[in-house]
């Protein structure tokens, strides 16, 4: 996975998480608790994905730095 | 954080053009606002957004674990002729609700706090409609959906059952229709 992909993934998770936060709150206020759990689960997974992508990006960047 | 750039130590003292070229170079800013700092903030933002949904899911789990609403007796059907409404509280003492026997003979119940700003709604039997007098919000009496005025959401529907001439409240639906 290249640097560009990592960037893409991170930006994508931001977009998804904005929507998930909005949907979670909406479902919560409508007392649709199953939906709340679903959206919030997606949000948490996406947060995790962002973190992994960041870790991966760092690894690529710092190792390529040593080579050059 | 000082604006002083360590490499520009002669800059201030000199008027020489080639030295003052350094003026637009700020090492601190370079360290602070770069590509890596940006991606770090972006990841932080994404994680903050994702994790901020956690409190809601915790509350939702508590909500799921809570027992279902009780079955509560509201009134004798005989005391509620067509065109009349009766106020009660359901599911808790703090949730005012309205049981309506419409002029068409239907029995319906809703939580009566207007979904705009919580004023109590009333049944207007002349027009067969629920009216919130605060800002002239109207709700359809047959399904609780807002039909005019500021309210945007439907009134929570209270499920009712009639048994042996008594009306019971058995549950509540927040989003319906
Ligand atoms: S509070 Fe009911 S219309 Fe505003």
From TrEMBL, chain A:
The keyword Transmembrane applies. The chain crosses the membrane at residues 5-25, 37-57. Keywords: Membrane, Transmembrane, Transmembrane helix. This is Uncharacterized protein. The lineage of its organism: Bacteria, Bacillati, Bacillota, Bacilli, Bacillales.
UniProtKB/TrEMBL annotation, chain B:
PROSITE patterns: RIESKE, TAT. Signal peptide: none annotated. Residues 72-169 form the Rieske domain. Coiled coil: none annotated. Pfam families: Rieske. InterPro entries: Rieske_2Fe-2S, Rieske_Fe-S_prot, TAT_signal. This is Rieske 2Fe-2S domain-containing protein.
